[in-house]
Every structure is written in C-alpha cells, then in structure tokens.
Amino acid sequence: MKKGNLRSSALLLLTACIWGVAFVAQSVGMEYVGPFTFNFVRSILGGLVLIPCIFFLKREKKAKAEKVSEEEKKAQRKTLLAGGICCGVALCLASNFQQIGIQYTTVGKAGFITACYIVIVPVIGLFMKKKCSPMIWLSVLLAVVGLYLLCINEQFSIGYGDILVFVCAILFSVHILIVDYFSPKVDGVKMSCIQFLVCGLLSGIAMLFAEQPQLSAVLLAWKPIAYAGIMSCGVGYTLQIVGQKGMDPTIASLILSLESCISVLAGWLLLGQTLSMREGLGCVAMFAAIILAQLPAKES
C-alpha cells in the first residue's frame, strides 16, 4: 500500500471513530432539543471552530500562494465557494433527514439504511464513469452483510421513517461524491468551514419555522452539542475532506461506514450496552471488508 493511501485510510478511520461516538452524543442531545435546533447549533459551532485553524494554516501556505496569479486566485475562490455551498446543502439535507427519520423508525433500521451509502456510492459512480474492481464490489457485499448482522435485530419492513433515512443515505452518497470532486481542487479546511456555516444557516431557517428553540434547552444539552459540533463536525468532516484526497470514493465510503461498528462499541463502553454474538460477527465482517478493499488490484 502506498504511503499516501495509508495516511488517507488512517484519517478516514479516525473520522469513523469520531462519528461513531457522536451517535451517543446525538442520542443524548435529542432528549433536550429538536433535530433542526441540534443541527443548527452543532454546525455553526463546527464552522466557528475551524476559523482559527484557517488563519493558523494560512501562514504556512502564504509563500506558495504568492506564486499564483490574481486570475487563478479568483478562480480558486469561486471553486472553493461552490464546493462549500454544494457540500453544505447536501450535508444539511442528509443530516436533517436522518435526525427526523430516526423519530419514526428504530435505531437498528436507521443505522443499516444510512450505511447503505457504501452501496449507493459505487452505483452513482458508475454514472460518473468511475470504475470499480471486482474486489471492491466483493468488499461492498461483505460490508452490507456485516452491517445487516450489526444493525438489524428485527424483521425488516419499509415505513415512513425508513424512507426518510433511505433518502438520507442517498444524500450522504451525493455528499461523498461532491467532496471527491472538490477536495483535490480547494483547501479542505476552508471548504469544511463553509459547508458547516451553510448547513447551520439552512438548519437555522428550518428551525425557526418547524420548532420552538429555547436557550435553556440548548444549555442543558451543551455537552453532546459541543462534542457533535467540535469533534464530529469541526474535526470529523475536515478529516474526511483531507483524507478523501486521492482516495477512491467507494473505498472511502467503506472505511467511513465503520462508524456503525464504532457506535456499537461506544454504546457498550459509555452506555453499558453489550455486544451479542450476532453484532460481533457483524464487526468482523466489516473489518474484513475494509481490509479486502485496501488490497491492491491486479494490473491488467
């Protein structure tokens, strides 16, 4: 495995760990505030946290930027803004569909359906002329089996909440592909900051129309919101953007889907939940899928 791919895989795995623990924070936070309020505060917080990082990293890139012409700088700013807005809209829709859908379905179904993005990404990628090797497709199949064993404990049926979460999975797939398109062309931290501010602004507008936000409720939920905003948003999605540079989006989605395994482990460690034999087999299948996806394809 190339050194660059190993670094990208490690960053995406760390992202999956952060997101997996964030499920606990989201569950606790929803006891105090509505989905739009939660996503509004966490997204704005995530965007604000990245502003100091942008100024800090700007010093290191200043010498390189001086070699770029004014026309190129304008083009880069337009691409950055377009990428941030596109990512922000996709993230807003996906995260809010997920939060709302969970209210009408079980957590097990929601986890499995959301993780279907590992299948949706390569399917959408085919329409964008992105080829997938048989090894990756086998990894996708293993991952789906693992997620089923891990998340589904009841008879599967399609309901209103299931449809909303499936829409969320499609939107997360779109988000992954948007990041794949823009991340090699722009500053990852800046694009991450813009996407969170856009996501927060759109969620805030929906919050004003659909909910009755109260500052006291937000203060009661400050711990889970702080984790979701600083770690899940500010750190997690930035690592995703940086880690996806040069990484096949299907492999990236497989690694990110490990958040389902991490969420089960986090529930066990933080909430006292136990792993059944079925869930343990699901984790094994997921890790096998990740390892298989990282094996180099044979050159034709």
UniProtKB/TrEMBL annotation:
Keywords: Cell membrane, Membrane, Transmembrane, Transmembrane helix. The chain crosses the membrane at residues 40-58, 79-98, 110-128, 135-152, 158-179, 191-210, 216-239, 251-271. It is a multi-pass membrane protein. Residues 10-150, 160-292 form the EamA domain. InterPro entries: Diverse_Substrate_Transporter, EamA_dom, EmrE-like. It is found in: Cell membrane. Pfam families: EamA. Belongs to the EamA transporter family. This is DMT family transporter. The lineage of its organism: Bacteria, Bacillati, Bacillota, Clostridia, Lachnospirales.
